[in-house]
Design a protein that fits this description.
Blueprint (H helix, E strand, L loop, with lengths): L3 E2 L6 E2 L20 H6 L3 H22 L1
Antiparallel strand pairs: 1-2
Length: 65
């Protein structure tokens, strides 16, 4: 675990996944990557995306034949 300091209150944060300071609640200004956003996405949106892709691929498959 790496140690990070809050830019506002200067307290150490030991959680690698934390986006907000535990002490003051301000942003730690960490970059959120695509996979980081995907981790906190609701499962309903992920299921809808997967179903949409399956339906579109089925339609393209039918139109191609």
């Amino acid at each position: 675990m790496s140690e990070c300091f809050c830019p506002h209150c200067k307290n150490p944060i030991y959680d690698d996944d934390a986006l907000l300071c535990l002490y003051c609640g301000n942003s730690l200004r960490r970059n959120v990557t695509f996979l980081g956003r995907f981790k906190y996405t609701k499962p309903v949106y992920i299921a809808g995306l997967v179903i949409g892709i399956v339906i579109l691929s089925f339609i393209f498959f039918i139109l191609k034949h």
